[in-house]
């Protein structure tokens, strides 16, 4: 005869959000893994060029962006705890706060690009900057898509659509946003620090 | 204890865990940036920075993504990613 407490524990193991979103996240992570490994191999082949390129990047701007994205992810995580408590209005406020931090990230990233352009550095300068612009701009596109998703789930929460434990859509949106954060914590040290 | 009280307590724990996770992530990020200034060896810097990446990744996967409460296969997949990718990068840099 099965132990009821063990049965309850097993059934508690649930993947947050929709299964399709998790496959999508895995696919995105795989694409970025190829970028990261490609960048590392290129750095090994062009060590001096990459060292000079990294020296021209603004490390403090990268750190500000790291703090902005982590803080944004934190507000998204606690927005989910509010949805669990059926406090939709508080969750919307927290999502808007998360988006404000994402706007800081986007502003700093655009400032970085403009600073490099003003120095005459473009995507065609050399292999380092080709990869720098490709990888960071691709990540920036994911941040923008993430902001659209956050807006959608905030609007849906405001409309009262996440009730009666039907919060799968909200969880899918927050999981996507955390993926954006997860990618940045690998991207930042790889391109700016080491 | 009523069912409702138990749910409230679990959520309170999640909020505390998220706050601790955020603090740890910020602290580790700052340490990673200033690591090259305190460590002379590039190999040690690379290994240190990538260990920090794995630690930060675990916080995001388990706390923010809530995969510590997910089926084992999914949690293992994501934890493998944040260990394997930095490991492959380390091997490439140190080769």
UniProtKB/TrEMBL annotation, chain A:
GO CC, sorted alphabetically, is: plasma membrane
Q: Superkingdom, according to UniProt? A: Bacteria
Q: State the UniProt keywords alphabetically.
A: Membrane, Transmembrane, Transmembrane helix
According to Swiss-Prot or TrEMBL, what is its membrane topology?
Answer: Multi-pass membrane protein
List the GO molecular function terms: cytochrome-c oxidase activity
- Per the record, the major location class is membrane
Task: Kindly list the residue ranges recorded as spanning the membrane.
Answer: 20-41, 62-84, 90-108, 129-155, 175-193
Q: Name the family the entry cites.
A: Belongs to the cytochrome c oxidase subunit 3 family.
- List the lineage, top down: Bacteria, Pseudomonadati, Pseudomonadota, Gammaproteobacteria, Alteromonadales
Q: Which GO terms describe its biological process?
A: aerobic electron transport chain
Q: What protein is this chain from?
A: Cytochrome c oxidase subunit III
Task: Name its cellular compartments.
Answer: Cell membrane; Membrane
Q: Which residues form the Heme-copper oxidase subunit III family profile domain?
A: 19-194
What Pfam families does the record point to?
COX3
Name the Gene3D superfamilies on file: Cytochrome c oxidase, subunit III, four-helix bundle
TrEMBL record, chain B:
Q: How does it sit in the membrane?
A: Multi-pass membrane protein
Q: Which residues cross the membrane?
A: 21-39, 45-65, 77-94
Q: Where in the cell is it found?
A: Cell membrane
What keywords were assigned to this record?
Answer: Cell membrane, Membrane, Transmembrane, Transmembrane helix
One GO cellular component assignment for this chain's record is:
plasma membrane
Tell me which domain of life the UniProt entry assigns to the organism this sequence originates from.
Answer: Bacteria
Q: Which InterPro entries match?
A: Cyt_c_oxidase_su4_prok
Q: What is this protein called?
A: Cytochrome C oxidase subunit IV
């Amino acid at each position: 005869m099965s132990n009821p407490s063990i049965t309850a524990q097993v059934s508690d193991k649930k993947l947050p959000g929709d299964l399709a979103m998790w496959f999508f996240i895995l696919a995105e992570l795989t694409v970025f893994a190829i970028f990261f490994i490609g960048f590392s191999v290129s750095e090994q082949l062009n060590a001096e060029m990459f060292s000079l390129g990294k020296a021209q990047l603004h490390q403090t701007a990268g750190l500000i962006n790291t703090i902005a994205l982590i803080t944004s992810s934190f507000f998204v995580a606690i927005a989910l705890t509010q949805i669990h408590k059926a406090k939709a209005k508080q969750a919307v406020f927290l999502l808007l706060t998360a988006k404000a931090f994402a706007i800081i990230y986007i502003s700093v990233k655009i400032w970085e690009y403009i600073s490099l352009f003003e120095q005459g550095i473009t995507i065609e300068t050399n292999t380092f900057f080709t990869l720098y612009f490709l990888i960071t701009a691709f990540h920036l596109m994911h941040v923008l898509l993430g902001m659209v998703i956050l807006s959608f789930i905030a609007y849906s929460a405001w409309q009262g659509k996440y009730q009666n434990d039907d919060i799968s859509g909200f969880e899918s949106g927050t999981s996507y946003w955390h993926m954006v954060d997860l990618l940045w914590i690998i991207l930042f040290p790889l391109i700016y620090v080491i | 204890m009523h069912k409702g009280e138990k749910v409230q307590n679990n959520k309170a724990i999640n909020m505390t865990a998220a706050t601790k996770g955020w603090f740890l992530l910020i602290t580790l990020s700052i340490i990673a940036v200033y690591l090259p200034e305190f460590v002379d060896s590039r190999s040690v810097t690379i290994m240190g920075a990538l260990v920090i990446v794995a630690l930060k990744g675990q916080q995001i996967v388990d706390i923010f993504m809530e995969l510590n409460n997910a089926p084992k296969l999914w949690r293992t997949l994501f934890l493998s990613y944040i260990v394997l990718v930095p490991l492959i990068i380390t091997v490439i840099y140190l080769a």
